[in-house]
Amino acid sequence: MSNRRSNVRFHFTEKPLDATIFVHKIKQVEVKSKEGSIQILDVSGNGLQFFSSLRFQVTDEVLLCFMFRITQKWFKVYGSIKRQRKTEEGYIYGVALEFEDYASKMALIQTVHQLKLEHE
User: Fold this and answer.
1) Are the C-beta atoms of 68 and 25 separated by less than 8 Å?
2) Would the pTM of this model clear 0.85, i.e. be above it?
3) Is the pLDDT of residue 4 over 60?
4) Cα R_g (the chain), whole angstroms
5) Least enclosed by CB within 10 Å: which of 8, 72, 106, 116?
6) Residue 37 exposed, middle or buried by CB count within 10 Å (0-12, 13-18, 19+)
């Protein structure tokens, strides 16, 4: 059974969270790509959902890097796009996150929990 939704998820309902995105790897090979701006709609320890006017591929072969700040903490996380939905303004993407280490994942989970508590 999948635990895709087992982590607490925080929805940025009042204002999406501004973030930077770039392609980190294609088929396990590091690449240099231009940075782009996105808006994170929600985040958990397992994934995030973001909006962009840019069109990205839904594939496990492309690993993206996301950089954003929640409260006063900066996060740099990686993930691949699992879902895409077209809207009138652009696209909404669902991303499965990967972390460089366990501490990075725990820091994000703790921050999301803190946000949830503050906004209940």
Assistant:
1) no
2) yes
3) no
4) 14
5) 72
6) exposed
